[in-house]
Automatic annotation (TrEMBL):
Protein name, UniProt field: Osmotin 34
PROSITE patterns: THAUMATIN_1, THAUMATIN_2
Cystine connections: C32-C223, C73-C83, C88-C94, C145-C195, C153-C163, C167-C176, C177-C182
Leader peptide range in chain numbering: 1-23
Pfam family, one: Thaumatin
Organism field: Theobroma cacao (Cacao)
Any single biological process term in GO: defense response
Residues passing through the membrane, by range: none
Origin: domain of life: Eukaryota
InterPro entries for the chain: Osmotin/thaumatin-like_sf, Thaumatin, Thaumatin_CS
Length: 224
């Protein structure tokens, strides 16, 4: 009887160790000359002064994950408050996605053919310059979006602290592509011209979605 009791424990231990061995780590660094409140789903959130780092991890099978920076935040001792950009429901440790505008590092770990999928997206707008890149020798991918998008933002998309995406502003099929059948617009081209490796509209996959082998670790830098 005792041997049957130990088998589930050993199986659980093996699965746990296997998952840990293949979990991806994300080293997040703030190089901005101001404090940002880093956010990650999964992961939570925390304030980061210039030069500070934060490491999170994600298990294989993690999908629809995001890392972003929030700006001009105020939180009380209980972790309740609000941010000018990227706010995630008024909490310090995010459980859900942030409000536009926010520059996004997006990823899915351990997907088809043992590949990770990574991208930077401006579909929800732009608030902080970003680099999202491999931190492992097996992949050399570097994605950056560092243009002065806030300073050059079209008047229709300007908001305090950022440059909003056209979908959150106009909420039309042309910009949001809910049907899955859409093309670039003048507003999406504004983002694409300045950050050619970043998503500018929902069907921008061919020039914006990149892969690394599962087992790669990553870094996300605010203001690289």
């Amino acid at each position: 009887m005792s041997s049957f009791k130990t088998l589930p424990t050993l199986s659980f231990l093996f699965v746990t160790l296997f998952s840990l061995a293949h979990a991806a780590t994300f080293d997040i660094r703030n190089n901005c000359p101001y404090t940002v409140w880093a956010a990650a789903v999964p992961g939570g959130g925390r304030p980061m002064n210039r030069g500070e780092t934060w490491q999170i991890s994600a298990a294989p099978g993690t999908t629809q994950a995001r890392i972003w920076a929030r700006t001009n935040c105020q939180f009380d001792a209980s972790g309740r408050g609000k941010c000018q950009t990227g706010d995630c429901g008024g909490v310090l440790e995010c459980k859900g996605y942030g409000s536009p505008p926010n520059t996004l590092a997006e990823y899915a770990i351990g997907q088809f053919a043992n590949q990770d999928f990574i991208d930077i997206s401006n579909i929800d707008g732009f608030n902080v310059p970003m680099e999202f890149s491999s931190n492992s020798p097996g992949c050399t991918r570097v994605i950056k979006c560092t243009a002065d998008i806030v300073g050059q933002c079209p008047n229709e998309l300007k908001v305090p602290g950022g440059c909003n995406g056209p979908c959150p502003v106009f909420k039309t099929e042309e910009h949001c592509c809910n049907s899955g059948n859409c093309g670039p617009t003048n507003f999406s081209k504004f983002f694409k011209d300045r950050c050619p490796d970043a998503y500018s509209y929902p069907k921008d996959d061919p020039t914006s979605l990149f892969t690394c082998p599962t087992g790669t670790n990553y870094k996300v830098i605010f203001c690289p």
